[in-house]
Automatic annotation (TrEMBL), chain B:
InterPro entries: RNA_pol_sigma-70-like (IPR039425), RNA_pol_sigma-70_dom (IPR014284), RNA_pol_sigma70_r2 (IPR007627), RNA_pol_sigma70_r4 (IPR007630), RNA_pol_sigma_r2 (IPR013325), RNA_pol_sigma_r3/r4-like (IPR013324), WH-like_DNA-bd_sf (IPR036388). Keywords: DNA-binding, Sigma factor, Transcription, Transcription regulation. This is Sigma-70 family RNA polymerase sigma factor. Belongs to the sigma-70 factor family. ECF subfamily. GO terms for biological process: DNA-templated transcription initiation. Residues 48-116, 158-204 form the RNA polymerase sigma-70 region domain. The keyword Isomerase does not apply. One of its GO terms (molecular function) is DNA binding. Pfam families: Sigma70_r2, Sigma70_r4.
Length: 222, 210
């Protein structure tokens, strides 16, 4: 595996570990962590740190309450694990099959149908709830996503392949987080690219004929 | 006369502080978990419970600001510890860290139960802590091929002239609907309906390609 260059910030990882992220963003970050030994180690350190900090203080609980709770636990049935969609190891787009990390595979059953977008792009929505959505985006070779800004944050993770923008080149495992001020124009060259993307507000295309897309960018990224 | 009792109080206070939260080592807590897992030892669990319950209570009260919900988190977390102690493995971390991650997950689920409905994501889907089969994956994720090229302009050119004209002026020339109405000498309502129809048509054209 090639070396991953772009990682989530420590702040994002702390929010991931403490369970404060939008669940869809947590899936994107979790998928990066699956692919990235460095971030797995950082996450472990954060867990140790937070556990120590959060479970350091004690709150007085009245003795009768404690005893009652203890008794009730000792006589309880094992809690049933909720039924969950099966983990999928691959996602499929037409004749192509992509191996995906478990943090994504655990949600792959929720994937919507692929739809083709102009410019050599395909996308499939993956919805955890009405406010928690992400997209699998496939860019074929020499594809281009129009230049755009976003009203909120955008997190993109490369699952497989390479894409470029005016700043850099991004490969398997690279995680890119952009806020609403940052423009970029993702494109592919002679390799295609599958990414997982989280957007907390619709895209706003800023150039040329792509501006046509704005009124229904909701069709693409919703 | 007045100084003496004060001193004694201080000493007493310090000695109780020292005795109260006895330093539980990770090894000791780990042994207790192992006993619970192997022999269902109620004594070992009680000791774990007495150590963790007040800490979880403090954590949960800070999270929820509600004592009853906090108690629910303590009970659910420790119930999992009682039944799933066999899933703890010392190689992966300390007992405190493990129990913290269980509490973190339960917090997440409690917060969602208040907002959402069934078929919702559970914390175990995001951070598997209590799943029997935990997969650590560190492979490369590969494969690809090709698909067909498509241009936005293609769709755009398929619009009827009247609609294309309106869309062109609004979305390429950046005019307001009122300006378009003035330029073309058509009613504002017509501009609006043509725009709506044009966007609908573009949607259809794109979806047809699915």
């Amino acid at each position: 595996m090639s070396k991953i260059k772009f990682h989530p910030s420590e702040e994002l990882l702390v929010n991931y570990v403490s369970g404060q992220l939008n669940a869809a963003l947590a899936v994107v970050v979790g998928t990066h962590i699956d692919m990235c030994p460095r971030c797995r180690a950082v996450v472990h350190d954060i867990e140790v740190h937070l556990a120590t900090r959060e479970l350091h203080q004690t709150s007085p609980v009245a003795e009768p309450q404690l005893t009652a709770m203890l008794e009730s636990i000792l006589s309880s049935e094992a809690p049933a694990m909720p039924e969950r969609p099966a983990l999928q190891e691959h996602v499929v787009l037409e004749s192509k099959s992509f191996k995906v990390p478990p943090s994504l595979g655990r949600h792959a059953a929720r994937m919507g149908p692929w739809s083709k977008m102009p410019g050599g792009l395909w996308r499939s929505p993956l919805e955890l709830s009405a406010e928690e959505r992400m997209y699998l985006i496939y860019m074929q070779e020499n594809a281009k996503l129009p230049e755009h800004t976003h009203r909120g944050n955008e997190a993109t993770l490369v699952i497989d392949g390479v894409f470029h923008d005016e700043h850099d080149e991004y490969r398997d495992g690279d995680f890119i987080f952009l806020d609403s001020d940052q423009h970029h124009t993702p494109h592919t060259a002679d390799e295609s690219c599958l990414t997982l993307a989280f957007l907390d507000a619709p895209l706003h295309f800023t150039s040329g004929v792509a501006r046509l897309l704005n009124p229904f960018s909701s069709l693409f990224f919703r | 006369m007045q100084v003496m009792p004060e001193k004694r109080n201080t000493r007493q206070y310090m000695s109780t502080v020292r005795r109260e939260p006895q330093e539980m080592t990770a090894e000791h807590l780990g042994q207790l978990l192992a006993e619970v897992a192997k022999t269902r030892s109620r004594v070992a669990f009680s000791e774990l419970f007495r150590h963790f319950a007040p800490r979880l209570q403090s954590f949960a009260t800070r999270q929820f600001g509600n004592e009853q919900t906090a108690m629910d988190l303590v009970q659910e977390t420790m119930t999992n510890v009682w039944h799933k102690a066999h899933l703890f493995s010392p190689e992966k971390g300390s007992p405190t860290t493990w129990i913290f991650t269980i509490a973190r997950n339960i917090r997440f689920d409690i917060l969602r139960k208040n907002r959402h409905r069934q078929n919702d994501v559970s914390a175990e889907d995001l951070w598997p802590v209590l799943s029997e089969e935990m997969s650590d994956s560190d492979e490369d994720f590969a494969l690809d091929t090709r698909i067909l090229l498509q241009e936005i302009g293609e769709y755009y050119l398929q619009l009827p002239d009247a609609q294309r004209e309106v869309v062109e002026q609004i979305y390429i020339e950046g005019k307001s609907q009122q300006e378009v109405s003035d330029t073309l000498g058509i009613p504002l309502g017509t501009v609006k309906s043509r725009t709506r129809l044009a966007l609908q048509k573009l949607r259809e054209l794109i979806s047809e390609q699915n």
